[in-house]
Write a structure and sequence with these properties.
about 0% strand; RgtA/B/C-like; transferase
């Protein structure tokens, strides 16, 4: 959550062009969220709170989507056009330079294609479904906070997420972060709910594995879970509870196995369907480093960087 908040704040500063304006808007949103959480915490019960939270949060997001009908641009436009082709059964786009360089984008593209096949070629439908997943994350935060701490903490956390301005504004963009964050948080929530249940570990592996297909940062969550589980195993071994320690390690291995199986199944399915012959983990390994470390271009990939990238790809 801290990483998401910091990155969102930085992006908002860049959009506003003013640190003071961004800070002021963030504080105002925080105060509004606290006020809403305070009112909701004193008045309705759990079910009523969730209904109000989802109704207000989703209503605000849909209103913003209808008010700001921003057309997709750049990568979002490319992925959307590819999804439209995939929905009609054409997969020539997968051999374009973009998808051979970044094959991991195929996961989100196929997801968008599925939505288009079901609801038709509608940008509003794609954005509203993304907004629903965004609100789903707020609901997960509520249950997680209430379970780990108390009801008030759960309500405050969910309200902060639901009414944090960048989360609302991003709902008008065809981004992969809404679904992926929902799946990653769902996996973590399952583990926090029932750490001693093998079924929870398997479902967590499934959720995080699916999130990895949408946005390839699942390994970060896997590493965090591995470190957490290893501490649990070490603690149990020190206390002499060897059977429980090895059971914990076994559940961790099972979760990683499910996660890996999801990646393998996705690759095999795309290969057999004739979509691509590239693995989702293939592609350009240098681009993110070149962009992130390019201070002269303010984090952008300029012509000189493109030439270096081409030389590295040829050597590879």
């Amino acid at each position: 959550m801290a990483i998401i908040f910091i990155s969102s704040f930085v992006f908002t500063v860049d959009a506003y062009g003013s640190f003071a304006q961004t800070l002021a808007s963030t504080v105002c949103c925080a105060l509004v969220a606290l006020l809403i959480a305070h009112v909701l915490n004193r008045r309705p019960g759990r079910n009523a709170f969730l209904v109000l939270l989802v109704a207000i949060g989703l209503g605000v997001r849909i209103g913003w989507i209808l008010f700001n009908q921003a057309p997709p641009r750049s990568d979002f436009l490319f992925l959307y056009e590819a999804a439209r082709e995939a929905a009609s059964g054409k997969f020539d786009f997968a051999e374009s330079a973009y998808f051979t360089s970044f094959p991991y984008q195929l996961g989100f593209t196929m997801y968008e294609a599925m939505i288009i096949r079901i609801f038709g070629d509608s940008l509003v439908a794609l954005k509203v479904i993304g907004a629903a997943f965004n609100m789903g994350t707020a609901v997960i935060l509520y249950f997680t906070g209430a379970r780990l701490f108390n009801e008030t903490c759960g309500r405050i956390a969910s309200c902060f997420y639901a009414f944090y301005l960048p989360n609302i504004l991003m709902c008008s963009v065809l981004t992969n972060q809404h679904l992926s964050v929902f799946l990653f948080f769902l996996g973590c929530s399952l583990l926090l709910k029932r750490r001693g249940s093998l079924l929870s570990w398997l479902w967590a592996g499934l959720a995080i594995g699916a999130g990895q297909l949408i946005r390839p940062i699942g390994v970060v969550y896997i590493v965090g879970i591995v470190l957490f589980a290893m501490l649990e195993v070490w603690k149990k071994l020190r206390e002499g509870r060897r059977r429980k320690a090895w059971r914990q390690a076994g559940m961790l291995v099972a979760m990683i196995g499910i996660y890996a199986a999801i990646q393998w199944a996705a690759n095999v399915s795309l290969h057999n369907a004739g979509v691509t012959q590239h693995a989702l983990s293939d592609g350009d390994k240098y681009w993110k480093f070149m962009v992130g470390l390019n201070a002269d271009a303010n984090g952008g990939l300029e012509q000189r960087g493109c030439a270096v990238r081409e030389r590295l790809c040829v050597r590879r």
